[in-house]
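target protein:
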Amino acid sequence: MRLKLIIIFLCSSIFGTEKFIGEVLKYQAGFRFFSAGEAIISFDWDTLAGDSVYFINADIKTNSFLDRFYRIRDNIKTWISPLNFSLKKVEKNISEGKYKKKHRAEIDYLSNIISYGHKKLNIQSFVFDPLAMIYKLRNNFNTQHFPKEITIYDMGKIKNVLFKIEQIEKIKVPFGEFECLIISPYSTNTKKLLKNNGQMKVWFTNDKKMIPIKIEQITNIGTMVMELKEYIP
């Protein structure tokens, strides 16, 4: 344990940033007319195969009311590079209604291979996790870098995604009222980016912190909205 702490300390000194370390985002989730549950996302250091890496953990669950109709218990663990936020390992345990899925993948950039289950995918460049993109977009943010095209890996599939700044809007959430930049992902080809023809938007505070205070996604059962209720820097 002591050695692990020393490695983490040295890593933080080398990379010179602790911008998101210790950050916790707590959201209330719901649809237009009723509350659905909550989501908690945390960001910290961890070690992977002896290397210090960033670690993101996300828990999403429905409340007791919605559990009776559509129970959600999702957990996502993501290990990413402190150098460029590229994906190194991901574990997903998805439980949404009758749909159950476990997925584990590791990326070997020396061999340019993603391994998951008994399958392998060849890659040509760095790949990024959808959840980690929240932090990659926030890191050294510059409007001149948009539109930004990123290669995403998610549940055995690789997609090229174009992120665009939609507009600036002032909104109010339980955590407060903020002027925000709205950023949305788009497919770079004719293939669907999200299942069920869903669309997604993220509201980032228009300041240096770029806190994601609202996330909206169209699903097959309606528009899911996650609004920030607590922020631990």
